[in-house]
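Components:
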Amino acid sequence: MTTATPQRESTSGLAEMPLVRGNLPNWAPWATLVGAALVGVAASMGLGLHIALAILLAMLVHSVAIYAWSRAVEGGRRATDRLVTTIVTSAFLLALVPLISVVVTVLQKGLVRFDSEFFTFSMRGIVGEGGGAYHAIIGTLIVTGLAAAISIPIGLMSAVYLVEYGRGRLAKAVTFFVDVMTGIPSIVAGLFAYALFVLFFGPGVRMGLAGAVALSVLMVPVVVRSTEEMLKLVPNELREASYALGIPKWRTVVKIVLPTAVAGIASGVTLAIARVIGETAPLLIVAGTTTALNLNPFEDSRMATLPVFSYYSYALPGVPREPYLDRAWAAALTLILIVMALNLAGRIIARLFAPRVR
Amino acid sequence: MAKSIDVSDLNIYYGSFLAVQDVTMAIQARSVTALIGPSGCGKSTFLRSLNRMHEVIPGARVEGKVVIDGQDLYGPDIDPVGVRRQIGMVFQRPNPFPTMSIYENTAAGMRLNNRKLPKKDLDEKVERSLRAANLWEEVKDRLDRPGSGLSGGQQQRLCIARAIAVEPQVLLMDEPCSALDPISTLAIEDLISDLKERYTIVIVTHNMQQAARVSDRTGFFTIAGTGKPGHLVEMDDTSKIFSTPSNKQTEDYISGRFG
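Structure:
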């Protein structure tokens, strides 16, 4: 009590240490929200306001109301807290709108043709109804799998070089070019792969491997970056403990550092795959499209992939249009499900490999 | 199997910064040598230079001689990995490998040093190392559990078991008890007394009672001021250092009148 200033004691008759303050009831934000919603409904019905504007108006009314009420009862700090809570929640909900909209739309339109025929038939000899995307699904898996097979070793080893060995100019240059590669537009990656394969196979080349090369141009920087971050998280003490046992550096990296970081690396790699599996532009150029199943990515022949299949079915439908559009949506839904499965797999891998405690 | 170490005119640098200046000392075999001194005086840096761990830090380098068994550790033909196999180290914070079990942690040095041992021999060595580290009774039923699930004191003893499993000549300990409670500290100190029968031990400590309890000889390091290099003030039998030190600075430090 000796710390309290004497002026305060004399001027205000309050307690020396005011710890009590007003509190809004728990239902307060809900009450203002309901009130604001009623205002929004009234504005939309009465004034013919557009639904989006009405929701905006309701949010504004709610923010102002809760802020003013809280300020009157609880004081400035709590009022600001409630205001910011409202803003953050609204921003979150706003961010969810496109996501939910996409999921609902794709589910609605994609489920029409999401049947066994879609997964077991190619488009060979099919005009109009029927057929499926079997060839495109297999094509996507082959091209993405090859891209992963090219990018993961390159990316992992580059990251190991950057974190464990790289010093000086070369490391700086590699980091710089990885950053540059992160920003390459995917169409440029496609043109690069096309130009590269034209050198060997002549103009007009279309092949699965070329698509995989284009995708790996996009994938390598993502793998390098995520692996680099994960390797940096491995505590230096573990490396030193290993060196102190007389374990050579390369074995330290292979047996101590990589296993410690493997969970993060695995999920980073899965995210990188998810990032490139939906790429359309480069595959449009170098893999092309076809109606039949093509299992050989190493010969000069077109290979269909899901994004390209979806694009062509939607952009250049045949007559009648409906079956083509349905197949395009079903392909989009399949792609989303594959990406989701990949993300899940990444999480499971991360959990399986994570260092155990107890 | 333990060896003595002769250090002469050792200067240790971080880049162009001279961290430790002109250290000359003889470390006797099968004894415990304690290094004491205020924070930042270069004890740990000096310790790390004894098994070439210092140069793991980019830009760090060493001038002078560290001679063990007639060979200069900083000679041109010396393989630093080989040096570290002979001179083990225990760190301030227990750092068992998080991906490995208790068994794998203890066996890590043997397994990762490219030595293919039959399972039976490995089992035997793991048990012997854990027994030597006074940890066997506590963990023998859960050798396959992660090492990071043990308590701090147990983890530190696991790290000691891991270090002695590769059968080094010398064991360096960098404040091995500073993160531990008094009971675990006592366990480690008992362990040090046992280990000195077979190993040459160098221990850095902030705890002067600990230095007095466990060591045979003590070296006192100090630093003239911030940015100045640390140096060895005096080195003598522990009983002499703590009763009648020949240097005034040492006396001030051990009696708590430092600075």
